[in-house]
Design goal:
single chain; Rossmann fold; 2 domains; 10 helices; methyltransferase activity; FkbM_mtfrase
Length: 275
């Protein structure tokens, strides 16, 4: 099992744009991190891209792959770095420990980051402070209606909304984007909320009508099934709102429209039809 996992990682190192020329270096970083974390799993500071740094320990799935891949979620991360600037407003819904929040803030964007789970929010704040970034971080969930929802507490940075009373959970305040960001005109919204994406969109209908909003990066990986939401429903909703799925060619820095949401990766980038 362990050897298979290492082999699979090595295969990915051979195809990733930043590690394919030296996959053994990436493998060394991967093994070193896991061995070190096994001995003493304390948060450590790692140098990153664009002069950024981040704190990470084993279990921080939203940031750890950057240690050995250098820049994980490469296509989407490069899109943020290549296309956003100081005139833009970036909304990070489900900020986790700050991967996209830090990238956008490093480009001088005005950033609003929502992270509901207190333990993960604390790590987000530490990463923001570590880099002296200007970010408005809110320890709140986002949904279709203002209120209180239960979030799981036993899944580390993968915690999410739960309706099962048998799962250990914590009551957390939830807001609608339309109310929390009423006066904002975002250029881009990133949504990664472990299957709760549909409900976030339902609370952001006014924002979606704002012509300043050009890009939506959203996770579609069938995780919405636990809430009886199909990815196809979200795709149709966004297309009806005038947002179409695109693939970003980071070498030519061009956007290419595609016919459906991405099935080869978790995130799909939707672009407003006039953008």
């Amino acid at each position: 099992m362990l050897l298979r996992k290492i082999k699979n990682r090595f295969l990915k190192f051979n195809t990733h744009p930043l590690t394919k020329t030296n996959p053994y270096g990436a493998l060394f970083r991967y093994l070193l991190f896991n061995i070190t974390a096994k001995i003493n799993n304390r948060p450590r500071i790692y140098n990153w891209i664009n002069g950024l740094k981040f704190l990470a320990q084993r279990g921080d799935a939203g940031i750890v792959p950057n240690i050995y891949f250098k820049l994980f979620d490469y296509e989407d991360s490069r899109f943020v770095l290549d296309n956003l600037g100081e005139k833009d407003v970036f909304i990070d819904v489900g900020a986790n420990v700050g991967h996209f929040t830090m990238l956008a803030a490093s480009k001088k964007c005005k950033v609003y980051a929502f992270e509901p789970v207190p333990s993960t929010y604390e790590k987000l704040i530490k990463n923001i402070e570590l880099n002296n970034l200007k970010v408005c971080a809110l320890n709140k969930g986002v949904g279709a209606e203002k209120g209180i929802l239960n979030f799981s507490t036993q899944r580390g940075v993968m915690n999410s909304v739960v309706f099962d009373a048998t799962i250990a959970s914590l009551e957390i305040e939830v807001v609608k984007l339309d109310e929390a960001l009423k006066s904002m005109e975002p250029s881009m919204i990133k949504i990664d909320v472990e299957g709760f994406e549909w409900f976030v969109l339902q609370g952001a209908k006014d924002l979606l009508e704002n012509k300043k909003l050009k890009y939506i990066l959203i996770e579609l990986n069938n995780s919405g099934i636990k809430f009886s939401i199909q990815d196809e429903l979200i795709h149709k909703f966004l297309v009806d709102k005038g947002f179409y799925p695109h693939q970003y060619d980071f070498e030519s820095k061009k956007l290419n429209q595609i016919t459906d949401y991405r099935r080869d990766k978790f995130n799909t980038l939707y672009v407003r039809n006039h953008a």
